[in-house]
Amino acid sequence: MARRLLAAVAIVVVAAALACGAGAQLSAGFYSSSCPAVHSIVRQAMSQAVTNNTRSAAAVLRVFFHDCFVNGCDASLLLDDTPTTPGEKGAGPNAGGSTVGFDLIDTIKAQVEAACPATVSCADILALTARDGVNLVSLGGPSWAVPLGRRDATFPNSTGAATDLPGPDSDLAGLVAGFAAKGLSPRDLAALSGAHTVGMARCASFRTRVYCDDNVSPAFAAQQRQACPSADADDALAPLDSLTPDQFDNGYYRSLMAGAGLLHSDQELFSNGALDSLVRLYGTNADAFSSDFAASMVKLGNIGPLTGSAGETRRPNRSGQHCGVRPWADHSRHHPVTVRILAGKTSVPARRARQA
Protein backbone atom coordinates (compact mmCIF):
# COMPACT_ATOMS: atom_id res chain seq x y z
CA MET A 1 0.00 0.00 0.00
CA ALA A 2 2.74 2.46 1.00
CA ARG A 3 4.81 1.68 -2.10
CA ARG A 4 1.77 2.06 -4.35
CA LEU A 5 1.01 5.45 -2.80
CA LEU A 6 4.54 6.71 -3.46
CA ALA A 7 4.64 5.26 -6.97
CA ALA A 8 1.30 6.80 -7.84
CA VAL A 9 2.67 10.30 -7.39
CA ALA A 10 6.12 9.76 -8.94
CA ILE A 11 5.08 10.87 -12.42
CA VAL A 12 3.27 13.90 -10.99
CA VAL A 13 6.41 14.90 -9.06
CA VAL A 14 8.56 14.74 -12.18
CA ALA A 15 6.07 16.70 -14.28
CA ALA A 16 5.63 19.37 -11.64
CA ALA A 17 9.38 19.62 -11.15
CA LEU A 18 9.74 20.52 -14.82
CA ALA A 19 7.30 23.35 -14.23
CA CYS A 20 9.71 24.77 -11.68
CA GLY A 21 12.53 25.19 -14.17
CA ALA A 22 12.47 28.94 -13.63
CA GLY A 23 14.24 28.20 -10.36
CA ALA A 24 17.38 27.64 -12.42
CA GLN A 25 17.40 31.39 -13.16
CA LEU A 26 17.77 32.20 -9.47
CA SER A 27 21.17 32.79 -7.92
CA ALA A 28 22.42 33.26 -4.37
CA GLY A 29 24.55 36.16 -5.61
CA PHE A 30 21.78 37.94 -7.50
CA TYR A 31 22.14 41.15 -5.47
CA SER A 32 25.92 41.06 -5.04
CA SER A 33 26.30 44.25 -7.09
CA SER A 34 22.89 45.94 -6.87
CA CYS A 35 22.24 45.50 -3.12
CA PRO A 36 25.02 43.61 -1.29
CA ALA A 37 23.70 44.84 2.08
CA VAL A 38 20.38 43.03 1.77
CA HIS A 39 21.61 39.92 3.59
CA SER A 40 22.87 41.81 6.64
CA ILE A 41 19.79 44.07 6.74
CA VAL A 42 17.41 41.12 6.72
CA ARG A 43 19.39 39.09 9.23
CA GLN A 44 19.74 41.95 11.69
CA ALA A 45 16.02 42.70 11.46
CA MET A 46 15.10 39.05 11.98
CA SER A 47 17.46 38.80 14.94
CA GLN A 48 15.73 41.71 16.60
CA ALA A 49 12.29 40.36 15.72
CA VAL A 50 12.96 36.93 17.21
CA THR A 51 14.43 38.53 20.33
CA ASN A 52 11.25 40.54 20.77
CA ASN A 53 8.85 37.76 19.85
CA THR A 54 9.94 34.13 19.47
CA ARG A 55 6.89 33.49 17.27
CA SER A 56 8.32 35.72 14.55
CA ALA A 57 10.38 32.94 12.98
CA ALA A 58 7.40 30.59 12.79
CA ALA A 59 5.25 33.40 11.41
CA VAL A 60 7.49 34.15 8.43
CA LEU A 61 8.05 30.43 7.78
CA ARG A 62 4.30 29.99 7.54
CA VAL A 63 3.93 32.96 5.21
CA PHE A 64 6.72 31.66 2.97
CA PHE A 65 5.21 28.18 2.72
CA HIS A 66 1.69 29.46 2.10
CA ASP A 67 2.93 31.92 -0.50
CA CYS A 68 4.95 29.36 -2.47
CA PHE A 69 2.09 26.85 -2.53
CA VAL A 70 -0.19 29.29 -4.37
CA ASN A 71 1.09 30.61 -7.74
CA GLY A 72 4.68 29.93 -6.71
CA CYS A 73 7.04 32.03 -4.59
CA ASP A 74 5.91 35.45 -5.83
CA ALA A 75 4.74 37.27 -2.68
CA SER A 76 1.14 37.19 -3.94
CA LEU A 77 0.05 36.24 -0.42
CA LEU A 78 1.26 39.61 0.85
CA LEU A 79 -1.08 41.61 -1.38
CA ASP A 80 -3.92 43.26 0.52
CA ASP A 81 -7.59 43.02 -0.41
CA THR A 82 -9.08 45.72 -2.61
CA PRO A 83 -12.78 46.61 -2.94
CA THR A 84 -12.98 44.57 -6.15
CA THR A 85 -10.38 41.83 -5.72
CA PRO A 86 -9.95 39.74 -2.56
CA GLY A 87 -6.42 38.80 -1.61
CA GLU A 88 -5.13 35.50 -0.27
CA LYS A 89 -4.75 36.49 3.38
CA GLY A 90 -8.33 35.65 4.27
CA ALA A 91 -8.73 32.56 2.10
CA GLY A 92 -8.57 28.91 3.11
CA PRO A 93 -6.05 28.02 5.85
CA ASN A 94 -4.78 31.63 5.77
CA ALA A 95 -8.01 32.89 7.35
CA GLY A 96 -7.77 33.83 11.01
CA GLY A 97 -3.99 33.61 11.08
CA SER A 98 -1.69 36.01 12.87
CA THR A 99 -0.57 39.15 11.03
CA VAL A 100 2.88 39.05 12.66
CA GLY A 101 4.55 37.63 9.55
CA PHE A 102 2.96 40.14 7.17
CA ASP A 103 3.83 43.13 9.33
CA LEU A 104 7.40 41.95 9.81
CA ILE A 105 8.03 41.46 6.09
CA ASP A 106 6.70 44.94 5.39
CA THR A 107 8.96 46.43 8.06
CA ILE A 108 12.03 44.70 6.66
CA LYS A 109 11.11 45.69 3.11
CA ALA A 110 11.06 49.33 4.26
CA GLN A 111 14.57 48.98 5.65
CA VAL A 112 15.83 47.38 2.44
CA GLU A 113 14.16 50.09 0.35
CA ALA A 114 16.00 52.75 2.34
CA ALA A 115 19.32 51.15 1.38
CA CYS A 116 18.48 49.92 -2.12
CA PRO A 117 15.38 51.59 -3.60
CA ALA A 118 13.29 49.57 -6.08
CA THR A 119 15.82 46.73 -6.17
CA VAL A 120 14.91 43.79 -3.92
CA SER A 121 11.56 42.05 -4.32
CA CYS A 122 9.22 41.21 -1.47
CA ALA A 123 9.40 37.58 -2.63
CA ASP A 124 13.17 37.49 -2.09
CA ILE A 125 12.92 39.24 1.27
CA LEU A 126 10.39 36.62 2.34
CA ALA A 127 12.75 33.81 1.31
CA LEU A 128 15.64 35.35 3.24
CA THR A 129 13.60 35.96 6.39
CA ALA A 130 12.41 32.34 6.38
CA ARG A 131 16.02 31.11 6.30
CA ASP A 132 17.30 33.58 8.89
CA GLY A 133 14.42 32.96 11.26
CA VAL A 134 15.25 29.25 11.30
CA ASN A 135 18.99 29.74 11.60
CA LEU A 136 19.22 32.32 14.37
CA VAL A 137 21.06 31.09 17.43
CA SER A 138 17.97 31.38 19.65
CA LEU A 139 16.32 28.71 17.50
CA GLY A 140 19.40 26.70 16.57
CA GLY A 141 18.19 25.58 13.15
CA PRO A 142 20.06 24.90 9.89
CA SER A 143 21.15 27.43 7.28
CA TRP A 144 21.35 27.30 3.49
CA ALA A 145 22.25 29.49 0.53
CA VAL A 146 19.03 31.15 -0.67
CA PRO A 147 18.70 31.45 -4.46
CA LEU A 148 17.48 34.97 -5.27
CA GLY A 149 16.12 36.89 -8.24
CA ARG A 150 12.37 36.45 -7.79
CA ARG A 151 9.94 39.13 -8.92
CA ASP A 152 6.67 40.06 -7.21
CA ALA A 153 3.22 39.12 -8.49
CA THR A 154 0.75 41.85 -9.41
CA PHE A 155 -2.34 39.74 -8.74
CA PRO A 156 -3.32 37.46 -5.84
CA ASN A 157 -5.12 34.15 -6.23
CA SER A 158 -7.65 33.78 -3.44
CA THR A 159 -9.19 30.73 -5.12
CA GLY A 160 -5.85 28.94 -5.14
CA ALA A 161 -5.32 29.82 -1.49
CA ALA A 162 -8.62 28.13 -0.70
CA THR A 163 -7.85 24.97 -2.70
CA ASP A 164 -4.08 24.41 -2.89
CA LEU A 165 -3.00 24.72 0.74
CA PRO A 166 -3.08 21.59 2.90
CA GLY A 167 -5.39 21.93 5.87
CA PRO A 168 -5.05 20.65 9.43
CA ASP A 169 -7.43 17.74 8.74
CA SER A 170 -5.67 16.52 5.57
CA ASP A 171 -4.90 12.80 5.33
CA LEU A 172 -1.60 11.35 4.14
CA ALA A 173 -2.76 10.64 0.59
CA GLY A 174 -3.98 14.22 0.21
CA LEU A 175 -0.75 15.61 1.61
CA VAL A 176 1.44 13.52 -0.68
CA ALA A 177 -0.65 14.43 -3.73
CA GLY A 178 -0.72 18.12 -2.82
CA PHE A 179 3.05 18.27 -2.45
CA ALA A 180 3.55 16.28 -5.64
CA ALA A 181 1.50 18.85 -7.53
CA LYS A 182 4.12 21.43 -6.54
CA GLY A 183 7.07 19.26 -7.56
CA LEU A 184 7.82 18.15 -4.01
CA SER A 185 8.45 14.54 -3.03
CA PRO A 186 7.14 12.61 -0.01
CA ARG A 187 10.59 13.14 1.55
CA ASP A 188 10.15 16.90 1.08
CA LEU A 189 6.75 16.60 2.75
CA ALA A 190 8.26 14.84 5.76
CA ALA A 191 11.17 17.28 6.04
CA LEU A 192 9.21 20.51 5.52
CA SER A 193 6.57 19.43 8.02
CA GLY A 194 9.36 19.71 10.58
CA ALA A 195 8.81 23.47 10.45
CA HIS A 196 6.06 22.69 12.95
CA THR A 197 8.77 22.28 15.56
CA VAL A 198 8.08 25.98 16.19
CA GLY A 199 4.87 27.95 16.13
CA MET A 200 1.37 27.71 17.52
CA ALA A 201 -1.99 26.45 16.32
CA ARG A 202 -5.51 27.62 17.12
CA CYS A 203 -7.88 25.37 19.04
CA ALA A 204 -10.21 25.34 16.04
CA SER A 205 -7.45 23.58 14.08
CA PHE A 206 -6.85 20.73 16.52
CA ARG A 207 -10.12 20.30 18.46
CA THR A 208 -11.24 17.32 16.36
CA ARG A 209 -7.79 15.76 16.72
CA VAL A 210 -7.71 15.78 20.53
CA TYR A 211 -11.36 14.83 20.99
CA CYS A 212 -12.01 12.36 18.19
CA ASP A 213 -8.85 10.77 16.75
CA ASP A 214 -8.09 7.24 17.91
CA ASN A 215 -4.32 7.47 17.38
CA VAL A 216 -3.69 10.29 19.84
CA SER A 217 -1.85 9.79 23.12
CA PRO A 218 -4.49 9.86 25.90
CA ALA A 219 -2.23 11.92 28.16
CA PHE A 220 -1.49 14.39 25.38
CA ALA A 221 -5.18 14.68 24.45
CA ALA A 222 -6.14 15.31 28.07
CA GLN A 223 -3.52 18.04 28.35
CA GLN A 224 -4.67 19.81 25.18
CA ARG A 225 -8.35 19.61 26.15
CA GLN A 226 -7.60 21.84 29.14
CA ALA A 227 -6.82 24.73 26.83
CA CYS A 228 -9.21 23.72 24.06
CA PRO A 229 -12.73 22.95 25.26
CA SER A 230 -15.12 20.98 23.10
CA ALA A 231 -16.93 24.20 22.23
CA ASP A 232 -15.90 27.85 22.04
CA ALA A 233 -12.34 29.15 22.62
CA ASP A 234 -11.52 28.68 18.93
CA ASP A 235 -8.62 31.13 19.20
CA ALA A 236 -6.92 29.47 22.17
CA LEU A 237 -3.35 28.58 21.21
CA ALA A 238 -1.13 25.57 21.78
CA PRO A 239 2.43 24.88 20.58
CA LEU A 240 2.74 22.62 17.54
CA ASP A 241 5.72 20.98 19.26
CA SER A 242 4.99 20.61 22.97
CA LEU A 243 8.44 19.16 23.73
CA THR A 244 10.68 22.05 22.61
CA PRO A 245 8.36 24.81 21.31
CA ASP A 246 11.06 27.50 21.12
CA GLN A 247 13.83 25.41 19.56
CA PHE A 248 14.22 24.48 15.91
CA ASP A 249 15.08 20.82 16.46
CA ASN A 250 13.64 17.36 15.88
CA GLY A 251 11.23 17.45 18.82
CA TYR A 252 8.29 17.56 16.41
CA TYR A 253 9.12 14.08 15.11
CA ARG A 254 9.65 12.68 18.59
CA SER A 255 6.18 13.96 19.43
CA LEU A 256 4.71 12.19 16.40
CA MET A 257 6.37 8.93 17.46
CA ALA A 258 4.64 9.31 20.84
CA GLY A 259 1.21 9.94 19.30
CA ALA A 260 1.42 13.62 20.31
CA GLY A 261 1.11 15.37 16.97
CA LEU A 262 -1.11 18.40 17.57
CA LEU A 263 -2.79 18.46 14.15
CA HIS A 264 -4.42 15.50 12.45
CA SER A 265 -2.31 16.24 9.38
CA ASP A 266 0.84 16.09 11.52
CA GLN A 267 0.08 12.68 12.96
CA GLU A 268 -0.73 11.36 9.48
CA LEU A 269 3.03 11.35 8.82
CA PHE A 270 3.39 8.65 11.49
CA SER A 271 0.37 6.41 11.37
CA ASN A 272 1.50 3.07 9.96
CA GLY A 273 2.04 4.68 6.58
CA ALA A 274 4.65 5.36 3.94
CA LEU A 275 6.46 8.07 5.88
CA ASP A 276 6.86 6.30 9.23
CA SER A 277 10.50 5.44 8.48
CA LEU A 278 11.39 9.06 7.71
CA VAL A 279 9.75 10.26 10.91
CA ARG A 280 11.81 7.70 12.84
CA LEU A 281 14.97 8.83 11.03
CA TYR A 282 14.40 12.51 11.79
CA GLY A 283 13.25 11.78 15.33
CA THR A 284 16.48 9.96 16.14
CA ASN A 285 18.93 11.84 13.91
CA ALA A 286 18.76 15.62 14.19
CA ASP A 287 21.49 16.09 11.59
CA ALA A 288 19.52 14.13 9.00
CA PHE A 289 16.50 16.34 9.63
CA SER A 290 18.52 19.56 9.39
CA SER A 291 20.17 18.49 6.13
CA ASP A 292 16.93 17.40 4.48
CA PHE A 293 15.02 20.42 5.74
CA ALA A 294 17.55 22.83 4.22
CA ALA A 295 17.51 21.01 0.87
CA SER A 296 13.71 20.93 0.80
CA MET A 297 13.48 24.63 1.63
CA VAL A 298 15.55 25.40 -1.47
CA LYS A 299 13.19 23.25 -3.55
CA LEU A 300 10.19 24.98 -2.00
CA GLY A 301 11.67 28.37 -2.86
CA ASN A 302 12.11 27.31 -6.48
CA ILE A 303 8.41 26.72 -7.07
CA GLY A 304 7.18 28.87 -9.97
CA PRO A 305 9.13 32.08 -9.36
CA LEU A 306 8.58 35.10 -11.58
CA THR A 307 11.92 36.12 -13.08
CA GLY A 308 13.33 38.45 -15.71
CA SER A 309 10.74 40.97 -16.86
CA ALA A 310 7.75 39.09 -15.40
CA GLY A 311 5.98 40.64 -12.44
CA GLU A 312 7.46 43.64 -10.68
CA THR A 313 9.55 44.77 -7.73
CA ARG A 314 7.00 46.32 -5.37
CA ARG A 315 7.55 49.86 -4.18
CA PRO A 316 5.90 51.72 -1.30
CA ASN A 317 2.67 53.63 -1.82
CA ARG A 318 1.69 57.01 -0.40
CA SER A 319 0.59 55.42 2.87
CA GLY A 320 3.98 53.84 3.42
CA GLN A 321 2.88 50.29 2.67
CA HIS A 322 5.46 48.16 0.90
CA CYS A 323 4.65 44.52 0.20
CA GLY A 324 0.86 44.65 0.58
CA VAL A 325 0.21 47.33 -2.01
CA ARG A 326 -1.29 46.58 -5.43
CA PRO A 327 0.77 48.32 -8.14
CA TRP A 328 -2.21 50.12 -9.67
CA ALA A 329 -4.26 50.87 -6.57
CA ASP A 330 -2.35 53.96 -5.44
CA HIS A 331 -2.14 55.75 -8.77
CA SER A 332 -5.37 54.84 -10.58
CA ARG A 333 -6.56 58.42 -10.90
CA HIS A 334 -3.36 59.37 -12.69
CA HIS A 335 -2.86 56.34 -14.91
CA PRO A 336 -6.30 55.08 -16.03
CA VAL A 337 -4.86 53.40 -19.14
CA THR A 338 -2.46 51.34 -17.02
CA VAL A 339 -5.34 50.30 -14.80
CA ARG A 340 -7.38 49.08 -17.76
CA ILE A 341 -4.43 47.09 -19.09
CA LEU A 342 -3.77 45.47 -15.72
CA ALA A 343 -7.44 44.72 -15.21
CA GLY A 344 -7.50 42.93 -18.55
CA LYS A 345 -4.33 40.91 -18.08
CA THR A 346 -4.35 37.15 -18.03
CA SER A 347 -5.00 36.13 -14.45
CA VAL A 348 -2.37 34.55 -12.22
CA PRO A 349 -4.17 31.18 -12.14
CA ALA A 350 -3.94 31.09 -15.96
CA ARG A 351 -0.23 31.85 -15.75
CA ARG A 352 0.22 28.94 -13.40
CA ALA A 353 -1.69 26.66 -15.75
CA ARG A 354 0.82 27.46 -18.47
CA GLN A 355 3.70 26.57 -16.14
CA ALA A 356 2.26 23.29 -14.94
Automatic annotation (TrEMBL):
It is found in: Secreted. Ca(2+) 1 binds at residues 67, 70, 72, 74, 76, 88. SUPFAM superfamilies: Heme-dependent peroxidases (SSF48113). Its EC number is 1.11.1.7. It catalyses: 2 a phenolic donor + H2O2 = 2 a phenolic radical donor + 2 H2O. Substrate binds at residue 166. Residues 25-321 form the Plant heme peroxidase family profile domain. Ca(2+) 2 binds at residues 197, 241, 244, 249. Pfam families: peroxidase. Disulfide bonds join 35-116, 68-73, 203-228. Residues 308-330 are annotated as: Disordered. Binds 2 calcium ions per subunit. Residues 1-24 form the signal peptide. The record marks 62 as: Transition state stabilizer. GO terms for molecular function: heme binding; lactoperoxidase activity; metal ion binding. The active site is at residue 66. Keywords: Calcium, Disulfide bond, Glycoprotein, Heme, Hydrogen peroxide, Iron, Metal-binding, Oxidoreductase, Peroxidase, Pyrrolidone carboxylic acid, Secreted, Signal. GO terms for cellular component: extracellular region. GO terms for biological process: hydrogen peroxide catabolic process; response to oxidative stress. Its cofactor is Ca(2+); heme b. Heme b binds at residue 196. Belongs to the peroxidase family. Ascorbate peroxidase subfamily. Removal of H(2)O(2), oxidation of toxic reductants, biosynthesis and degradation of lignin, suberization, auxin catabolism, response to environmental stresses such as wounding, pathogen attack and oxidative stress. PANTHER family: PEROXIDASE, PEROXIDASE 72-RELATED. This is Peroxidase.
